[in-house]
Amino acid sequence: MSSERAPAISRVGLTAKRGLTAASGVIAELAGWLEARNVRAVFEEETAYLAGVPPDRRTVSRDDLPRECDLIVVLGGDGTLIGMAARIAAAGVDVPILGVNYGSLGFLTEITLPELYEALEAALEGRAAVDTRAMLTARTIRQHGVFADHVVLNDIVVTKGALSRIIEISVTVGEAPVTRFRADGLIIASPTGSTAYNLAAGGPIIHPAVDAMVLTPIAPHTLTNRPVVIPASSEVHVRPIMDSRDEVYVTFDGQRGFELHEGDLITVRRAPLTVRIVRSGRRSYYDLLREKLKWGDR
Fold first, then answer.
1. Residue 91, CB-side half-sphere exposure with 13 Å CA sphere
2. Which of 79, 82, 136, 207 has the fewest beta carbons closer than 10 A?
3. Domains in the chain: how many in total?
4. Confidence category of residue 10, pLDDT binned at 50, 70, 90
């Protein structure tokens, strides 16, 4: 994670969680606020409908939005921001995200509604702190060919089906075998993802400035199987050891995924792409942890 000054912004993309009617008035007000400052509001098409934008106004799809603006304002929860981060990566552009929290936790969409205009004004004027977050890339190999490629902000999770028994997962880092985990699954998380599923599974919190990944078994059969923090420069090879009775799935940021087949191999490494997230000027990362995790509360 690093902090840097944002470049000049003349087009701001507006997108909200699907069906977030609570944000409709804010979206319309926000568009007016931007255009009063000679900044063009670029509406994602479903968000435009929420805000009651006239049908003759040009809108763009969620997938195309990153190519059409210099900053994207996301109204929703962390899942909405993560979805946009994946679209930015797919577009191959470097557009920062300002996340406004309409969710329940909001580690990434940390800016509250009362802070929105203060944070946005700082971004437009180049005063906002912008954190650069590492992403991970996962390649699934099936029958000696590339079956799928994904870029994630949080994590790649290999897990058993709902009615399946404990699964066995072979893990190698580089050329060095680590172990065969017997567990309900395995999480490979970035520092940003360390406060997501990894945290719920008992993994460590990793500061976003640390150049690392974490391997966290889910409910391991052997209690000495603990999370392992490894350098982000590592290449991780994950192979489920399966037979016909096993159901094993892989998910990417909890938003995409598929069932794995016997012999499939997943290779995970640090992505060449990063995503930039506008931070609130009112709190540090440690303030955020205390607030969201209720540290010190009795």
1. 20
2. 207
3. 2
4. very high
Q: Distance between CA 152 and CA 161 in Å, rounded?
A: 22
User: 216-253 burial by CB neighbour count: b if 16+ within 10 A, else e?
Assistant: bbbebeeeebebbbeebebebbbbbebeeebebbbbbb
pTM over 0.70: yes
Q: Any idea what DSSP says for residue 7?
A: -
Whether 227 is covered by a domain: the verdict is yes
Among 139, 147, 136, 76, CA closest to 108: 76
Kindly report the number of other CB atoms within 10 A of residue 43's CB atom.
23
Residues carrying an active site annotation: 78
* CATH code, domain carrying 210: 2.60.200.30
Answer whether residue 298 is part of any domain. no
* Residue 51 clears pLDDT 60, i.e. is over it: yes
Between CA 250 and CA 135 the distance in angstroms is: 17
123 phi, psi to nearest 5 deg: -65, -45
Structural domain boundaries enclosing 171: 135-272
Can you read off the two tokens belonging to residue 187?
Answer: 């999480």
